[in-house]
Each structure stands twice: as C-alpha cells, then as structure tokens.
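The authors assume throughout that readers already know how a fold can be written as discrete tokens. In essence, backbone conformation is discretised, so a fold becomes a row of integers matching the chain in length. A single example would do more here than another paragraph of explanation. For illustration, here is how one protein appears when written out as sequence plus structure tokens:

…
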Amino acid sequence: LGISPISIHDNFFRIGGDSIVSIQIVSKARQRGIPLSVKDIFAAPTIRGLATQALVAKNTSLTPTQGELQGSLPLTPIQSWFFERNLQERNHYNQATLLKLNQVFPPHKLQKALSRLLQHHDILRASYHYDGTTWTQSYLPVSVHNTLPFFLECDLSHLREEDFNATIHKEASQAQKSLNIEQGNLLKAVFFHGGDHGDRLLLVIHHLAIDGVSWRILLEDLQHLLEEADLPPKTHAFRDWGEALKIYASSEETLKELPYWIKVEESLSSLPTDFPPSHDPLYETQIVSLTKDETALLLREVPKAYRTEINDVLLTALLLAVGDWVNTYSLSLLLEGHGREDIIQELDISRTLGWFTSAFPVSLHLEDPSQIGEALKTVKEQLREIPKKGIGYGILRYLLKDSPLKAPLPKLSFNYLGQWDTTLQKEETFSFAKESTGDHSSPLNREESLLNLNGSIQDGTFYLSFGYDCSLYSQETIKKLSLAFINRLREIIKYTTENNIFGYTPSDFPLISLSQKNIDRTFGLFHNLEDVYPLSPLQAGLLFQALYAPSSDAYFVQNVWKLEGKLDHHCLQKAWQSLVDHHPTLRTGILWDGLDKPLQYVLSTLVVPFTFLDWTQDPLETKSLEERLEDFIQADRKQNFDFSKAPLFRITLIKTHDENYTLLWSQHHILTDGWSLPILMNDLFNLYQGKSIVAPRRPYKDYIAWVQNQDMDKAEIFWKNTLRGLDGPTRLPFKGIVQKNQAKDYEQHTFSLSLEETNSLKSFAQKHGLTLNTLLQGAVGKVLQTYTQNPDVVLGVNLSGRAIDLPGIEDMVGLFINTLPLRIPSSETTPLDFLTQLQERTQLLNEYDYTPLAQIQSWTNESKGLFDV
C-alpha cells in the first residue's frame, strides 16, 4: 500500500486497499508458501485475521504445468466479446506501457529478458484463427515464435526534447499498428536510445493477452530478470482457466444466477446523446482529477465512514453527476472488474497473464439524491447484491449453450484500474515514463460505449478519463459532466471525512439478515462496531434463562486464583487488555430488544474492566482476610451483567499482603466454555511475561458460520427418529414436593470415589473400549429408570461441540458446548452391551450437536423440556 506504519488490526480496505492490490498480496503470499486467496482478504481484511486464515488454509491447488504449452485453448468470455464486435482493425486493439530505464542496459540483455518472458508466459505466444464462423486460439511453439520479430531499436539520442517526445509518439504509434493476432505476433518492444534524455523501453501487447493485473505481473517479472534473479514458478495457465470456466458455466451454482441477470437486462435504460448517430465517429478524451491530498482522503479516510470500497464511492459520484445531467437518478452502465474471482478453488492464477477482465451490466438508482450518506449506502448495497462480483454474467452469456442473456449492453462503461504507484516496488531498475505510448486502438474500431470512463491512481493522484464520440456529444456536455463528477466526488469526500460520520449496511454483516432501517435503529450509535452475528444454540438457551430469571446467578462463572510473588498490577492490566484486543469473544455484547432473533455484536476496541484493590492499606478492617474475600466474592456474584453492554466479564485484582494477591475473573457463561479457559490463561500469562500470543485463533464467528451451513432438514429427521415413540419427558417424581430454597435457586452436592474405585473404573473402561463418561451416563440412566419407574428415559448431556470439521476449532475461544437429549431405552442385554450401545448413541449425537435444544423440543412437541436431569 505504500504507507507505514500498519497495525495488525488495520482494515486493508479502510487504509487504501482494493481488489487489485489484494491480488498482488495473494501472489506474494503464495510465493512464500502461504496459500491465501483474494476471498480470504475480503473475509478477514486485517493482518491478524489473515494470520488466522493462513493457519487453517489448505493449498487445494492442482500442480501447474511448468513446461512449454502448445495446442489449443478455449476463448474466455471477454475474448468472445472482443470477436463478437467484429472490429475493422482487430489487430490494433492494444495496451502499452513506456518505461524509463534508470540503469544502462545493453539492448541484447533487454531482448533476452523479453524472450524469457515470452517463454514463461505462454499466452504471449497465442495465435488466432477464423474458420469462417468461429474464432479459435492456440499456443505457438517457442521455436516458431522465435522467428517472429518483436524487438526494435530506435536511436533518439541526437534529438532535442520536443523532437524526442514527438518521435517517441510517432514510433510508438507505428508499433501499435504492427501486431498481428493471426500470426501470433502479440508483443512488440521498442528500445529508444535516449542519450541525455535517458533510455526508454516501449512494450505494446495486444489486449487479447493482457489486462491491468497482468501488467503488474509482467513488469515485476521483467524487473527480476534485469536484476538477474529467477522467475517464480508458473501458476496455472490461461488455458486451465478457460477450460474450468466452460465447466463452471453449466454448474448448478452458476445457473442459479440466471434469474438475477435476466432481471438486470430487463431493467437497463438508454443514455441520452446530443446528436443523432453518425457513420463517422471521432473519439476524444476529457480528463479530470483530484489533488494528491484529496486522493489520500479518498483512499484512506472515506472508506472508514460506511465501510465502502473505492468503486462504491466512485459510482455514487457518477450516479449523482449523471442524475444532475439527465434529471433522473437511475443509471445503467457496463462495469468492468479484474475477473480473477475465487470461483475455481483448484486453480492458482495469481501470477497468470491473460485477459481475465469481467464486464457486466449494472443498474443503479437513488430515491433521494440530496442525502449523501444514504446515497453511498444505497449504491454500496446495490453493488453488493451482484453475485460473485459480476463474473458470472460473461460466463453465462458467452459460454452457456443457448444462453437467454442477449440484451444490448449499456452504452456507458466504467473501469477502475487501481493504483499504479504500487506496481513498481523498486524504481532503481525502471520507472514509468511520461511520454506518449501512441494510439492503443485504431480510429476505425468503433467503440461499443458512447461514454467510456477509466479511472486510476498515478503518482498519488486520482484521474478519471471520459472517452466520448464527438459526433454524439459536444465538448461542452462532456466538460460539464466530468466537472459534475469531480465536484460530486469532492462533496462525498468532504461529507465522509468531517463531523465523525459513520454507519453500517446489511452487507457488513453477512451472517445476519437485517434491513437498513433495523441496522440504523439497533446499531446506529455503535461507533466502533466490528461484527454482528447470531447466537449459538446454547447461547440462545442461556440468554432465555437469564431473561426468564434475571436475579438468578446459575450461569454466573467466577474463577478465583491465589497469586504469590512480586506482581506488577499495571503490567497485568496491560496483559488483560492485549488479551481482549486479541479475542473477539471478550469484546462481545448481546442485543434482542426489537429483533426477531437475538444477536451478538463485537466491538473493535474495548477498555478492559480491570479493578485493583490494595487491602494492605486498610488497617481498620476487623474481619479476617478469608471473611472479607468470601463477602467480596458473594457481593460480586450479585452484580449481574447487562447483556446489551459489552463486555460480559470483569477482572478484580486484590492485594492481600506484600506478595500475595487474589485474582477474580467474573463472567457470564454465555461467553465461553470450560475448554476456552486454559487457552485464555495461557495467552494471558504469555502476555504478562512479555511474550506474544504464539498462534492467532479463529474468531468465534467462524463457528457461527459453520452452524448456519449445517443441514437442519437432516437434523430434523434424525431427532424425530431418535425420539419417536417416547412416552413424554423424563421428570423427577419428587420435584414437586421438595420445598424451595428461598435463599438460593440452586445448590451443589459433591461426592467422590476412592482412588481404588476410580482406578477400577478406568481399568474396566479401557479394557472394553469405553469412556468414563459412558460409565457415568449409564449409571445415571439406570438411576433415572429406577426412580421414574420408566424403562425409557431421556438424559440431558453436554457435548463439547468441537468434534466437527472446522480447522483450528481446538484453539478457538467461545461457547461451543450444547446440551442435547440422550435417549436411554430399556435394555434386556448384559451391562456391557448396554454400555457399548449407549456409547454408540452418544457418539451419534456429535453429528447433530449444532441443533438448538429448543428446536428439538419443538419438533417433538415438548415445549416445556424433555428432561429434568
């Protein structure tokens, strides 16, 4: 990103990142053996989050072919679109860059490096053939391609500056015209001997083989070769991508998108023009820009207000500007993307050259253009509704047989090309030159779009070019439109960076379904909201119990530690703060008022509730230390938590003597389970000793997402079958006659077995492949059958909830346990067979331990519960 410092908590997209830079990050990560994907960056856009993703990520990629590729390869959707246009000069449709060489390179070294690139990136050797009905492409062998001239030299060292610039433009324009796609001549390089002006290297590549992301890869590889470094291994070929797309086009996942795209095509509207269509188009360009300071705000401050990406902001400004022009705030446009979406998990195309661009129709509309904040949120949500960032449209239109998608495409196209400043990480070798690269496309190639908008950031400045046909629009119209755009963009920048503006939209929280109105009402005052997601099954049950009996402390958890030795309470408080910063669960609160279902929210920052008490400075106290501690602990239990206000825990450190302390951690059970305790304590003591937390933990929301993806229909069948024929719930017969304790709503009774008895049980369990848990469950089951006089009983059992296919769950912090009904039917078998069958029944529950107990009770029509024990 070219900025420093960056915190592990900084959000990539809120400090200037975009989807194109994310591809560069993925490429560099994979070169270092970290199998990240662009999807991972969107899902966890902080260094802390990506570290967690990296721990659990699996490299599922197939091994790319490293040798020379030959033979045919399918056309991609954007290539099919190109040939569909039937351009008059299809050979002259290129992209180009002009480099200023900052070192002296002999021409033969440059040519050798480029030859190596032609060998390494096979798509640069593609050739195209038309059989009268269809265009096809294939790879030329390296030996054949070597016979094609691609490297020229031009001596301009004797020219004055104005002649130098003019000659470069002239020679570049000639190079642009010299490509031939049918011969496989897709690349032309021109080395300009510049003398005192400095040498230049022009690279012209036909668009069929290159796009904006590919240029970044190519220039990085050229830099490696000129520095005499090795190239990274090949990633999957453009052919692999094309073949995978052909299969993907007819997949069930892709076909589900058809109704969406049909609806979009039906909603498209036309763009007005100043003049009627002409047979003699003449194309001009109007360019507008921000200042460097405004660009910095656009990249790093504007996204913080509404969690926007740069396209959200630019397209909002465009919609407002066009609306100001045509007096209606509805806009149809053809939006272009990089097209390298993570839809084929087995392929790694992070360093693959080719034309991957996706182009798809978008309809945007506003009801109230006067409210900048609402306009931003509305456009953001309309863009988020586009499935898979639009890549499916071209696939369905051009690769699906008998596709219904055939509507004329919008005549306004928009493409944000990203930040070119970060392309060249080191400029000791070369940098971008400012001279002309010639005409990229022949004037005879009629543009499909009436208005062609291309945005980018160069030298720290945002530019937007308005390409237009002079036969359709007056210069005055385009000037007004471009100025309206830049003014609207400045208006958005000012609005979002002043007055502490913030807000959230439904797409910010993908695990819940709330309207914009409900989000504003429920979370509108939460300035530092990180995430929102549903409760786990047991969390929902515990919340119900807490609301049903608010004075009960049944699920109030206290951990008390005696600490001896020298202790720095400031350092301990700092360690607790770092622990809270690291674990989202400790920054969690719960809301339910006015919601269909309760939700838990996570704050991005939170000050740990840490209290230090020095009892050594209280000489007037008459009670013993043990009495004071017990009184304090009991008083602390009576201070219930307000679930709506995070955090749901507090820390108290009491100094009782010079080197004796009591540490009290009070929390509600709704936050964590017993498994989480040693994880948190280990992290805490490492932090206190100045160590970092060794491994990032997966956030609790990943478990909630896993729960949401489970098959509840399958679970319903299982539980109905398991509990079918049950003669009502299992109730304790003496429950109604026991006198209620008015002081406490629960009590504990503890008994223990002797060491000899314990070892005997362990030996029996090991001998017969049983667990101690099974022995205890069997014993309780038999007691229940006896006391209830019912041979078929149900026992509530706690499952860890961690025996699931979620990598890293063993180190996650949160509440994973669940209480489920274990049916213990009558058995005429031996005790050993009874226990073996019971263990099998218990293990089977693990497959459905995500099911809420309340849901099971609903399926079995036992709303008041299935068990007392």
About this structure: The chain has five domains: 12-56, 71-238, 270-425+438-499, 516-697, 706-737+748-859. The longest helix spans residues 475-497. The chain has a mean pLDDT of 91.
